[in-house]
Design brief:
Blueprint: H1 2-6, H2 11-18, H3 22-30, H4 37-47, H5 51-56, H6 65-73, H7 78-96
Helix pairs in contact: 2-3
Length: about 100
């Protein structure tokens, strides 16, 4: 699935959010089977696409770093999201500082 790969998500990650088995996502992507309409709607929601966009099989637009991070954070609990965001804020603060020349 072009959208999944463009977001940098694994089949396992998408399957967890859609509440299906990873093999089910693999079958969808290989064209072995098609998702039901409710599952397609959930896939579209998880991937930030419309159902039409997923069915068109066209490459998605380039995703921003923020969009990719949002997709990665979505399945985490609120507590885990806060933890990851805290770490990212610390890293960004550290690496955003001007480096001193030695």
């Amino acid at each position: 699935m072009l959208w999944r790969k463009a977001l940098g998500l694994t089949q396992d990650q998408v399957a967890l959010q859609v509440e299906v088995e990873p093999e089910t996502i693999s079958r969808f992507e290989r064209g072995v089977t098609l998702p039901s309409l409710p599952t397609l709607a959930r896939l579209a929601e998880v991937l930030g696409a419309t159902m039409t966009q997923l069915l068109e099989e066209k490459a998605p637009p380039p995703f921003s770093v923020a969009e990719k991070l949002a997709a990665w954070l979505a399945p985490l609990s609120k507590q885990d999201q806060a933890f990851v965001l805290d770490i990212m804020a610390r890293l960004c603060g550290r690496y955003g500082e001007p480096r001193k020349k030695k």
